Amino acid sequence: MQGAPVLEMRDISRRFGSTQALAGVSLRLYPGEVHALLGENGAGKSTLIKIMTGVHQPDSGQILLDGRPVRIGSTLEAQRLGIAAIYQEPLMYPDLNVAENIFIAHAGRGPLVDWGKMYREAEAILAQLDVRLDVRQPARGLSVAAQQTVEIAKALSLQVRVLIMDEPTAALSAHEVEQLFAIVRRLRAQGVAILFISHRLEEVFDIADRITVFRDGRLISSAPRADVTVEQAIRDMAGRSVEQLFPRRHTVRDEVLVQVRDLGRQGAFHGVSFDVRAGEVLGFAGLVGARRTDVGLALFGIAPADQGTITIAGQPVRITNPRQAMRHGIAYVSEDRRGLGLSLPMSIAANITLPTLRRYLNPLGLLRRPAETDTAEEFRRRLAIRAPSVEVEVGKLSGGNQQKVMLSKWLNTRPRLLILDEPTRGIDVGAKAEVHQMIDDLAAEGIAIILISSDLPEVLAMSDRVLVMREGRQMAVFTRHEATQERVLAAAMGQRDAA
Amino acid sequence: MHTWRQRMRPEQIRELSLVGLIVIALLIFGWQIENFLSARTFNRITSSVAIVGMVAIGQTLVVLTRNIDLSVGSIVGFTAYFVGSQLAANPGLPPVMAVVLAVLTGGALGLVNGLIVAYGRVPAIITTLGTLAIYRMLLINYANARTITVDSLPSWVVELSRQTIFTIGDFAVRPLFAITIAAVVVFQFVLAYTVFGRRLYAIGSNPEAARFAGLPAQRTVLAAFVLCGMLAGMAGFLFLARFGNITAVAGQGIELESVAAVVVGGVNTFGGSGTVLGALLGAFLIDLLGQGLLRWLGISEFWRDALLGLLILLAVASDSVILGWLRRIWAAPALRAEVSNEG
Q: Which GO terms describe its cellular component (chain A) (predicted)?
């Protein structure tokens, strides 16, 4: 862009086992430029970041800082060279206060802490970012956005020249993203070079000066934002042209499957009412903290509702545990694959049959493992799960394939109502498209689907109707053609719909 | 590259490497120690593995659910003494009744553990450390400084440790060892082919996923503790048959030996993976090393505990280091580009 690059990666390659994670990648970061990096999972973005921050060493290639070759042997060296990274989930010391977290990396300032000086300097740095945050407040209980701000302040305290932001917005609400971008623009004005990684294209096109696309460890394209279109970027990432992001068929049937009236749970949400028809996708939109997941958990009996009624196929039901929910044909695919959904040391087959084990008993009450294998193989084919065998541990699979195992597990319960909670978070573009196709297919089979997603374009594209929540309250329900980004966002942010 | 490495599960690798280590140890000891590969050594090891192995089966069930039972030594001692004194008082008691009595006694003690852990939500390590002391106290009170002696027992009990079921070359297989092998076979099967077994793995490897799948976690954990108690009770009966002379300190230290067998046998202390066969092999290897090193280096019995401790640490270290390393090797060819761990 202008002047000399602060950091230049020249012809960097790196292998892991038989995987060529990076193959001859060259990249220049200029001061005062936001450089966005796009690519599917496994494209090599993380490897590049890890080489920049000294976690990995390149097999070949050169790193130049201010035109001079450098070797980055550790994260500490990277920090000393002015290269820092912040991540989606910041690493905080929860019992230390904000100022201590900012200055945690400053060793060798003598054995005593000059508290007054530390607080003054911490406040000065935060003021530089135009952020109001009590520096004496413990980090515990800070929002993810505030924690990221602390991480940025920490990087600034170390005289950062290259700031790497790896999916910083994934856990932020729209408002918080705006605040973060304000900070990014301020840093850019101060001459910091920023490498910005995100799966959200709108954000990338909002903030970036230059957009670079990686695929399979190679640099595919790199151009100023003005010269790149969204379609072009997606084509470069996927390596194939994508005509339409989400094709949807109209499959809504007349039969109202689930009727929910005035559902609520003390301290979480209240007054939620909706119908879902067979073959319908009902989207749940809202910002972080809208309590959409709590509604899903109430329907599935994990955190049962204490107000309101649920009617399934005309029958009023009470759901107080997952077993009852499953008996009524409800399945819940949780957002957190590792934490809530899958048993990583267990095989694909054992994970898939876990909620339905009773189906696989022979007359002696013993498990028919060949039958389990058959079921798992069927799902492996149907959902294209990439694994050498269904006996492989789920922990060895990639995120997208784990997500498919999750889906298989719950589809195998043969649900009438499928609740999908953030089904595409953290999986790559290709896997995402497959999940979308699957949602469409399932709806066509007559399954009612509740789709909880923070990805607004996804909700809008996939849903027949969109229910918008904000802080535990239902704000609006839009039909597919009423639901525009502006109206949904306005409702989610508390603006009553004018129309 | 789609070879056995991808098909094998980590616990199978662990079991094979245990067999390998056992063979190596046998070769070294047989070469270095005169008369090591004798019927006597075999008998000593199998008699001792019979007891520890039986306890280790139950310990495996409990550890699979991310819990631990430290009270098993006290349960073994209590049951051995209690059944011994009943047999001494009623020599006409049928053998089956004696075994049932032992299993029920152990089961009752296990039930207490299980209720406190599963329904009282007290961590297992605290609960069973407490009951370790309490059960031992009950035994001391009950025994009142008396000893059960071989002479007071019906002869069929003592004969169990001397009879030969069949021989392999010079090696005689005793009933005690055969009973434990049978129990291992049964529970290996239970873990692989029953809903209960699958639930143990599921609850241990991811309690939240188990909850979402609607599994009855509390009941399953309770059942694991009850079974662990029953197996420890059975081991108490084997203990009685092997030694005949039972005092109030009977079974002390078995908790450490069973945990060592389970951990060396590849049962993950964070739950979710491992087999009872592995635990039996672990018990076998530990006892073999104990016997061998004692005779080879002429070290004292007191080194045994240190050896156990060392083996536990080695096993846990190799678990995290070697298995982690193996997993990375596996992951690379099977799933390209996942190494950089994006997303």
A: plasma membrane
